[in-house]
Write a structure and sequence with these properties.
Chain A: It comes from Pseudoponticoccus marisrubri. Chain A: GO terms for molecular function: ATP binding; ATP hydrolysis activity; phosphate transmembrane transporter activity. Chain A: This is Phosphate ABC transporter ATP-binding protein. The complex is a heterodimer of chains A (265) and B (490). With 265 residues, chain A is an alpha/beta fold. Chain A has helices at 56-63, 93-99, 114-124, 131-144, 148-151, 164-176, 194-207, 220-226, 244-249, 254-260, and strands at residues 16-27, 30-41, 45-49, 73-81, 84-85, 100-103, 182-186, 212-216, 229-234, 237-243. Chain A contains ten helices and ten strands. In chain A, the strands form two sheets. Chain A has a six-stranded mixed beta sheet with strand order 6-7-8-3-9-10, sandwiched between helices. A four-stranded antiparallel beta sheet of chain A has the order 2-1-4-5, covered by helices on one side. In chain A, a hairpin with a 2-residue loop joins strand 1 (16-27) and strand 2 (30-41). In chain A, helix 3 runs parallel beside helix 6. Chain A starts with 15 loop residues before the first strand and ends in a 5-residue tail after the last helix. Chain B is mainly alpha-helical and 490 residues long. Chain B folds into two domains: 3-195, no CATH class; 253-489, MetI-like (MetI-like fold, Orthogonal Bundle), CATH 1.10.3720. Chain B has 17 helices and two strands. Chain B is flat. The two termini of chain B are 60 Å apart. The chains are: A alpha/beta (265), B mainly alpha (490). The structure holds adenosine-5'-diphosphate and magnesium ion. Adenosine-5'-diphosphate is lined by residues 27, 30, 32, 50, 52-58, 70 of chain A. Adenosine-5'-diphosphate (ADP) is lined by residues 27, 30, 32, 50, 52-58, 70 of chain A.
Chain lengths: 265, 490
């Protein structure tokens, strides 16, 4: 239905997971995202950087259709995951969000036990046949979230009682538990201290073996540390997109250069 | 001098003080308001405050003390012989006051000269006749000591008011002068006014607290009085409510249990109606409704809360009762004898509580952070899954608090019960039978013609106290839960 065949989108050896074309987002009359084209690879960490309010979160939320939950938000253009248009009428946004997990800026564990936090998604989507199955899923997710050792003795304690860094890893484990293919992270470390940040970054690095990870960050060091690809947003435009190393050492656009050297932002 | 005039005079002095103080302060700064410590209006306010506040305080104290003083003097002067059998000093004193007021009214109407009203040799029969003709209520014949006392009473009252007027005006003027002397550029009028405002607010707060304490104390004393006349164990554990109608008989059964049962039964029916409907309405309004629908529906729901409860009572009596009767009454299922029943009152009370439950729950549901919902949606949960499994559990303590507050309102409700539930105190499980509640019985015990000192009347205070303790407990518990829940997200 669209004239951009998938084969043309191959730029590197990795497969293209997410392909966005001419994406526009409006909040009422505000035009928040303007004409964004981007190809996000599988098994790669892609960082979105840019000054505050440039639309990083907005674009991220297009990828799992979280913007649908905002009344005044309108999305135009075309976003495909594995060649399938996610804004097609036949796509159920609720189902899509199980496939495209999301981790938020502030750790937001549910006021439930650690176990129930993780089991929430699998239960809703019927991923477990029985209790033993569910236990296994929970353990696996907590291990992937690199938090199993810290909580295995208190699975039934409330998730809100953990420290900030543990809560964020719990939220990552919660997102991983529904077996997503893409993991979206919106400034996942901005509420964490440096040690917790290092733990989460290490975790992100591991996660890229299985997922396509997209991370919004306002820390350029973090983008440089964890990502292979970087996209620089400015005033709703995608200004520059490419290998992280290149963006940080040899940016093409003057705006990117000004941002990286600290002159805008 | 009438009180109103005195009041206005003091206000006028204060107003003049304001203008004078302001201009005097300006003058002291050579007309340049920048040289003043405070804005000119503060100097004016300072003078006005000093002119008005002490004067009004004096007036208040005087008005409280003067009647007490006159009463003691006059009653000391009444000879014992003037107190007939079966009466006491209090009765005689009220007769004295009535006679004095009668004389006042006659003088005011011009039917009697002041000199005549004061004359010691006036003919008793004539005075009685004149008082009765003028429509003043007096006993068969005014006796000599009573007339004497009444005349003294009038004289003392008149002198008292005159003295008060003088003292108040003098004090007000003194305050004015004091304030004016202070109105110099360096004077910190702003700070004084600030202290004055503070004192005003403290006074308001203490009045609120003191009246509450006063109400509770009056309940407590009368309750103790009741338990002196009627055994407490019979009151708390008695299974029968049957006050005797003679007013003084000792044969009354005043057991509170049937009343408490009626109260709780009706409240439970009310909550069964109000909680599901109110809660679902709140969920719809806070989670599903668009901003426009919410903007219209929420105020409309809250209109329900503004309807006086007597109107709900009429609704129960005239609409719901007959409706239920036609279904469950003799023509229908045959369970119901009359329109007034637990069901009738409970349903209508539930309708009354819907907006209460829904607006409290709405606030509480809205207080659940959006991040919780986002987390759930982000995992691929639908709206109702999110509400059922994340929002409601998070809001549950607050909602329980809201329900407890609604329950304490249901327990205290009176008019709907009086009109909708009947007046029979009964221990029964059938919700289609008439029952009554603690509040409704308080009304009927106090509006009857029982002697105010009899247990039949005093029991109202014990009932009120019981109700007060129950609702206070519920409210404290509810607020504790609500507050504990609030801390969770901060
Ligand atoms: N829910 C919303 N309603 C209206 N405007 C919004 C909303 N969310 C974001 N915006 C606007 O969209 C623009 C981009 O915001 P956002 O994507 O949050 O920026 P970033 O994450 O890069 O800081 C901003 O101008 C912001 O004001
Ligand atoms: Mg953002």
């Amino acid at each position: 239905m669209y004239d951009a065949p998938n084969t043309e989108l191959h730029v590197t050896q990795n497969d293209i997971k997410i392909a966005a074309r001419k994406v526009q987002v409006y909040y009422g009359d505000t035009h928040a995202i303007k004409d964004v084209d981007v190809d996000i690879e599988d098994k790669t960490v892609t960082a979105f950087i840019g000054p505050s309010g440039c639309g990083k979160s907005t674009f991220l939320r297009c990828i799992n259709r979280m913007n649908d939950t905002i009344d005044i938000c309108r999305v135009e253009g075309d976003i495909q995951i594995d060649g399938e248009d996610i804004y097609d009428k036949r796509v159920d946004p609720v189902q899509l969000r199980a496939k495209v997990g999301m981790v938020f800026q502030k750790p937001n564990p549910f006021p439930k036990s650690i176990y129930d936090n993780i089991a929430y998604g699998p239960k809703i989507h019927g991923l477990a046949k029985n209790k033993a199955d569910l236990d296994e899923i929970v353990e696996k997710a907590l291990r992937r979230g690199a938090i199993w050792d810290e909580v295995k003795d208190r699975l039934h304690a409330p998730g809100t009682g953990l420290s900030g860094g543990q809560q964020q890893r719990l939220c990552i484990a919660r997102a991983v538990a529904t077996e997503p293919e893409v993991l979206l992270m919106d400034e996942p470390c901005s509420a964490l201290d440096p040690i917790a940040t290092a733990q989460v970054e290490e975790l992100i690095d591991e996660l890229k073996q299985n997922y396509s990870v997209v991370i919004v960050t306002h820390s350029m060091q973090q983008a440089a540390r964890v990502s292979q690809k970087t996209a620089f947003f400015h005033l709703g435009h995608l200004v520059e997109y490419g290998e992280t190393g290149k963006i940080f050492t040899n940016p093409e656009d003057t705006r990117t250069e000004s941002y990286i050297t600290g002159r805008i932002g | 001098m009438p009180l109103l005039w005195l009041f206005l005079i003091v206000l006028a002095i204060a107003a003049v003080g304001y203008v004078l103080g302001r201009s005097r302060a300006l003058q002291s700064a050579g007309g340049d308001s920048r040289d003043l410590h405070s804005l000119p209006s503060y100097y004016g306010t300072n003078v006005a405050m000093k002119a008005a506040v002490p004067a009004f305080l004096l007036m208040l104290v005087w008005l409280l003390v003067q009647p007490l003083y006159i009463n003691t003097v006059i009653s000391g002067a009444i000879p014992d012989s003037a107190i007939s059998d079966g009466a006491n000093l209090g009765l005689v004193m009220s007769e004295v006051r009535r006679t004095a007021e009668g004389l006042d009214a006659l003088v005011a109407a011009g039917e009697m000269t002041e000199a005549f009203a004061r004359s010691a040799r006036a003919d008793l029969g004539d005075i009685t006749q004149r008082l009765q003709d003028a429509g003043q209520i007096v006993t068969s014949e005014v006796t000599q000591p009573i007339l004497r006392a009444a005349q003294d009473y009038r004289v003392m009252n008149a002198t008292g008011s005159l003295l008060m007027s003088g003292a108040v005006i003098v004090l007000s003027l003194a305050g004015l002068l004091w304030g004016l002397r202070e109105s110099q550029a360096a004077f910190r009028a702003r700070n004084v006014v600030e202290a004055g405002v503070r004192a005003l607010l403290i006074a308001a707060a203490s009045i609120a607290i003191l009246t509450t304490i006063g109400i509770v104390l009056s309940l407590v004393f009368n309750t103790i009085e009741f338990f002196r006349l009627y055994p407490a164990s019979d009151f708390f554990f008695g299974l029968e409510w049957a006050p005797s109608f003679s007013g003084r008989g000792g044969s009354s059964e005043l057991g509170v249990i049937p009343l408490l049962w009626g109260t709780f039964y009706i409240s439970i029916v009310a909550l069964l109606v109000a909680v599901p409907i109110g809660l679902f309405a709140a969920i719809y309004l806070s989670e599903y409704a668009s901003r426009r629908v919410r903007g219209i529906a929420k105020p409309m729901l809250e209109v329900l809360a503004g309807i006086p409860t007597i109107v709900y009572g009429l609704f129960a009596l005239l609409t719901v009762g007959p409706l239920l009767l036609s279904v469950f009454g003799r023509e229908g299922l045959g369970w119901m004898q009359a329109g007034t029943a637990v069901m009738t009152a409970g349903i209508v009370m539930g309708i009354m509580l819907i907006p209460f439950v829904s607006s409290l729950s709405d606030d509480i549901i809205n207080a659940v952070p959006q991040a919780m919902r986002d987390g759930s949606y982000g995992l691929g949960a639908t709206k109702s899954e999110t509400i059922k499994q994340v929002v409601l559990p998070a809001a549950l303590p607050g909602i329980v608090g809201a329900i407890l507050l609604a329950a304490s309102r249901a327990i205290g409700e009176t008019m709907i019960v009086v009109l909708g539930a009947g007046a029979a105190a009964r221990l029964s499980l059938n919700p289609f039978e008439a029952m009554t509640t603690v509040t409704a019985k308080i009304v009927s015990q106090l509006t009857g013609d029982a002697d105010f000192a009899s247990p039949e009347a005093l029991v109202a205070f014990a009932l009120g106290m019981t109700l007060f303790v129950i609702t206070l407990g519920l409210n404290v518990f509810a607020l504790y839960i609500v507050r504990k829940y609030r801390e969770q997200y901060e």
